[in-house]
Amino acid sequence: MEALVFINVDVGYEDSVMEELAKIPEVSAVHFVYGPYDLVVKLTSDDAETLRSIIRDKVRKINGVRSTTTLIVAKTYLRSGPPH
């Protein structure tokens, strides 16, 4: 399963949080964004329980992470091919 995690971080922690997120094996992309969130992370897991564990035990424990909002991907269309 895939999920997008929207993260708010403490001021000045954007780069260090991005570096720590990139070390998590389940994370496939980390984006710095402008808007109501600071970072958007794409991650994959085998199931919902594993996803919960990744967010609870890895993402939320990174120094500087203030809050997370998780969206589970229901369906994906890629511009170059069929849906996944």
TrEMBL record:
<dbReference type="InterPro" id="IPR019887">
    <property type="entry name" value="Tscrpt_reg_AsnC/Lrp_C"/>
</dbReference>
<protein>
    <submittedName>
        <fullName>Transcriptional regulatory protein, asnC family</fullName>
    </submittedName>
</protein>
<dbReference type="InterPro" id="IPR011008">
    <property type="entry name" value="Dimeric_a/b-barrel"/>
</dbReference>
<dbReference type="Pfam" id="PF01037">
    <property type="entry name" value="AsnC_trans_reg"/>
</dbReference>
<feature type="domain" description="Transcription regulator AsnC/Lrp ligand binding">
    <location>
        <begin position="5"/>
        <end position="76"/>
    </location>
</feature>
<comment type="pathway">
    <text>Amino-acid biosynthesis.</text>
</comment>
<dbReference type="InterPro" id="IPR050684">
    <property type="entry name" value="HTH-Siroheme_Decarb"/>
</dbReference>
